[in-house]
């Protein structure tokens, strides 16, 4: 429980690939045997449906019709639909090791995955792996297919990139680490061309990165970086944050989901050479509109001069938590 392999097997079981109307069974055996014959002609395939069996067209309709008891939920992914139809039309493709060769993209979001085990290496054709909204805190690069081009780990608990960077997939183009627990300045050293020579898109949004200068010095080594997300990190509170990044990374096209136009580059030209303007501090102005439950000072009558009446003093402590 908690491993990627266990979650994947549970995912396959949930799809019902071994149940009617998928896979090979008494409902489609004759037609399937006819398709396996290399001499089979289209006309012969149409006549191959024996009495009591169903044609491929009828079985497909059972999978696709939303009123069918065997239909997938409306919110299921294209990946789910494809696997169901492959299991029905060509079940031999999903037998044994062949199953893993079908996947070029795999989405396992919110499946309770805690560990990426060696089972991932069976997906030798995998190019896109989506593991968002799980409980992954550690990613071992040795367990990732070398063919990966997209790795999305948004909304996990990753706090250290060291294991991921031991031998990462060399052709990776997108790395998604938004909404994790990366803390600066110890993680910036893992974001260089030595580990990600082909990276085009990088999502580091909503982490705990604080060292803007250190991060930019490492990101500037990535020759193909065009899309960068940093919003939600403490370093974005620096007043010159966007301008400094725009001028320091001239090849960047999109920053925090906002396109960088030539006019903006011209506006911030030269700011990247003024690191003294990127001080790690920010000013916060708090305006209190209304306070309830406190005595109103104007409600007290001023004591007359020489009066011996008691003087009452009120003190209040206001605490701001960020």
Automatic annotation (TrEMBL):
Alphabetized InterPro entries for the sequence: Leu-rich_rpt (IPR001611), LRR_dom_sf (IPR032675)
A single GO cellular-component term on record: cytoplasm
Name the keywords, alphabetized. Answer: Leucine-rich repeat, Repeat
Do you know which Pfam families this protein is assigned to? Answer: LRR_1
What is this protein called in UniProt?
LRC43 protein
Protein's organism = Dasyornis broadbenti (rufous bristle-bird)
């Amino acid at each position: 429980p908690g491993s990627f392999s266990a979650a994947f097997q549970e995912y396959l079981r949930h799809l019902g690939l071994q149940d009617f109307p998928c896979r090979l069974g008494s409902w489609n055996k004759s037609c399937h045997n006819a398709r396996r014959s290399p001499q089979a002609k289209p006309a012969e395939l149409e006549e191959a449906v024996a009495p009591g069996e169903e044609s491929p067209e009828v079985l497909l309709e059972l999978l696709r019709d939303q009123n069918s008891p065997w239909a997938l939920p409306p919110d299921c992914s294209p990946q789910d639909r494809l696997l169901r139809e492959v299991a029905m039309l060509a079940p031999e493709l999903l037998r044994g090791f062949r199953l893993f060769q079908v996947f070029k993209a795999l989405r396992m979001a919110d499946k309770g995955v805690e560990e990426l085990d060696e089972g991932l290496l069976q997906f030798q054709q995998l190019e896109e792996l989506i593991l968002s909204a799980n409980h992954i805190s550690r990613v071992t690069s040795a367990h990732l297919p070398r063919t990966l081009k997209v790795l999305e780990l948004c909304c996990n608990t990753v706090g250290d990139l060291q294991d991921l960077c031991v031998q990462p997939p060399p052709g990776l183009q997108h790395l998604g680490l938004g909404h994790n627990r990366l803390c600066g300045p110890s993680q910036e050293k893992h974001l260089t061309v030595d580990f990600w020579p082909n990276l085009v898109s990088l999502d580091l949004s909503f982490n705990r990165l604080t060292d803007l200068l250190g991060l930019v010095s490492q990101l500037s080594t990535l020759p193909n970086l065009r899309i960068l997300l940093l919003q939600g990190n403490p370093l974005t509170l620096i007043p010159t944050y966007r301008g400094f990044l725009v001028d320091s990374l001239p090849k960047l096209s999109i920053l925090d989901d906002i396109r960088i136009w030539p006019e903006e580059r011209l506006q911030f030209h030269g700011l990247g050479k003024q690191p003294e303007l990127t001080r790690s501090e920010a000013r916060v102005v708090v305006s209190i509109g209304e306070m309830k439950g406190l005595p109103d000072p104007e409600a007290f009558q001023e004591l007359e001069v020489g009066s011996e009446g008691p003087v009452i003093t009120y003190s209040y402590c206001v605490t701001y938590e960020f």
